[in-house]
Every structure is written in C-alpha cells, then in structure tokens.
Amino acid sequence: MNPLVPIGSSLAAACAGLIAYGAVYPRAQLFGRTLCRTDSPRKLAITFDDGPNPAITPKLLDLLEKHNARATFFVVGRYVRECPEILRETAARRHLIANHTHTHPNLFWMSAVSIQAELQQCQEAIGAALNSNAKWFRPPFGFRNPWVVKTATELGLKTVMWTLIPGDWTPQPPEKLIGNLRPIADRVQSPVANASATGDVLCLHDGGHRALNADRTHTLKALEHWLPRWRDAGLEFVTIEQAVSTPAT
Ligand SMILES: [Zn+2]
After folding, report:
1. pLDDT score, position 1
2. Does 196 or 163 have the greater pLDDT score?
3. End-to-end CA distance of the chain
4. Which residues crowd ion ligand 1, with CB under 5 Å?
5. 212 CA to centre of ligand 1 in angstroms
6. What is the mean pLDDT of residues 157-161?
7. What confidence category does residue 100 fall into, taking pLDDT thresholds of 50, 70 and 90?
8. Above pLDDT 90, what percent of the chain?
9. Which helix (H) or strand (E) holds 43?
10. Which of 34, 39, 62, 71 has the maximal Cβ count within 10 Å?
11. Which string of DSSP letters, residue by residue, matches 48-61?
12. What is the DSSP letter of 68?
C-alpha cells in the first residue's frame, strides 16, 4: 500500500474543507474581506434579499416606515427591470439599495468574467431605475470563490454577509420565524454581548429568487412582532452604510 495515498487523501480533504469554509461560512474572510457586523451592539442592520417583490415589498415599506426603521435591500437586477417603480419607492423612503446580481446564480462555479457580467448587469438595472449606482453587494446564497469579492471590489462594490440568517426563504408559520429571531433580543439583554463592540447584520428575504411574487407573509408578520420590541430594547435600525459609518444615537 502506498503510504502517500492516505496522506494525500487527508490533505485533499483538509483543502476541500478549507475551500468549503471560505466559500460558505458567512463570516469567513478567506476569499476576501467582507462586512458581517455593525460597529455597535445597539445598531441592528436589517437587510432583505431577492426583491423587489410586488407581493411583499410595498407592505414591508409601510411597516418599516411605521417604526421609523431604515433597512438595506439587496435586489435582483432582472426584478428591478420588471418593477423599477418599487425600487424608486424603496430609495425614496431612504432605504439603501444594494446589488444581489442580475439573475441570482451560484457564483461559486463561475469565472471572473461571468461574475463581472452578473454584477455589472445588476448595477445597470439599478442605475437605470435610480440614476445612481449601488456601493454594496451580497453574493447569492452567500457563496464565494476566490474571484467574487475581488471582482466586486473592482466594480466599486463592498461585499456584505451577515451574523444571523433565520431561514425565511420557505413558507412557514410566522411563529417559527418569530422564534428564530429571538437571539437578537436575547443578545441585547446580555451584558457580555453589550460589552462587545459589534452588532448584528440580519439577513431576511422580501422576495424569492425563482420568481416574482413569492409569499413572504411570515417575514412581514415576524417583523410586525419584533420591530417595536427591538426598539423598546434600545436597538437602532440602520442601513449597511450607517452600520459602519455613524455613531449610534
Ligand atoms: Zn438571494
């Protein structure tokens, strides 16, 4: 038996493990620097992926306004082209618009050229609707390869991940999602977390990447429950831009 075979296999397994970590783990920095946290335990950055979605986004905008909450929307370029008026309304209400690619592919398997095309086309869709460019980007499914963050940086985009992703992309009873969001309130009340210098970036979904009009009623209901409670607990709702640039008030 060749003794190098098991060593080679374990090395290959270790490398595969490292690549999987860098590609999938939300706070891994192996494939380039990403923003994962806010700079204060009192700042909560609520983010929404996969919109704009005519079935949910307008209702969500009303709910956020009711609680004076600003958020960040990582939008899919092809949906922006179908619903530019929703994007304009989102921006008009002082939320931050960010890039989530044009067609929502898994970028892990794509070349630098194809990744650039996906990001650029989404930039163009946002630019056509708003007359301004996005500065922030989140990879679909959070998947990265060695070219994703680098390509985004070349296009002037900073890459954003998250600290909490409660799994709202499938229909579910609102109570389940309400339960999955409990760690945010628990952390605010924890002296250890309050002594830390960072806060949460929460990844929710107002759309579905397979088609427009995905049902995200549970996301809406869970936020109806938590927004006033988070506010009462002393959290400030910030955009990704504010998450790292302004002091908590
Ligand atoms: Zn997505």
Report:
1. 45
2. 163
3. 67
4. 49-50, 140
5. 13
6. 97
7. very high
8. 79
9. strand 43-51
10. 71
11. EEEE--TTTHHHHH
12. T
pLDDT at 32: 83
* Cβ partners under 8 Å of residue 128, min gap 6: 80, 81, 84
CA of 68 to the centre of ligand 1 (A): 25
pTM equals: 0.90
Residue type at position 138: R
Q: For residue 70, what pLDDT is reported?
A: 98
Rounded Cα gap, residues 163 and 71, in angstroms: 15
The residues annotated as belonging to the active site are: 49, 205
Distance CA 7, CA 243 (A): 45
Phi, psi torsion values for 39, nearest 5 degrees: -95, 15
Tokens 């794509």 correspond to what residue? 110
How many other C-beta atoms lie within 10 A of the C-beta of residue 62? Answer: 11
User: What tens digit of pLDDT does each residue of 7-34 get?
Assistant: 566 666 767 777 777 777 777 777 888 9
Q: Tokens representing 13? A: 């397994």
Rounded distance between C-alpha atoms, residue 32 and residue 105, angstroms: 19
Number of residues that make up the chain = 249
Residue found under tokens 């209400």: 93
